[in-house]
């Protein structure tokens, strides 16, 4: 897996460490990012995406008159 180096403000890194409960800023940022991505996938699974819009439209048969 490729590694990426990201420069963050110290306060942001400390906040990420506090939120994730880790003592290493690199681990903290990785955990927060993984949680963010997992949350986005869960939301897509629950709400669908633009391709699912047809599923929500009501295709009702025409009303018979007479």
Automatic annotation (TrEMBL):
Domain of life, per lineage: Bacteria
Which residues does the annotated region (Disordered) include? 42-66
Q: What is this protein called?
A: DUF2191 domain-containing protein
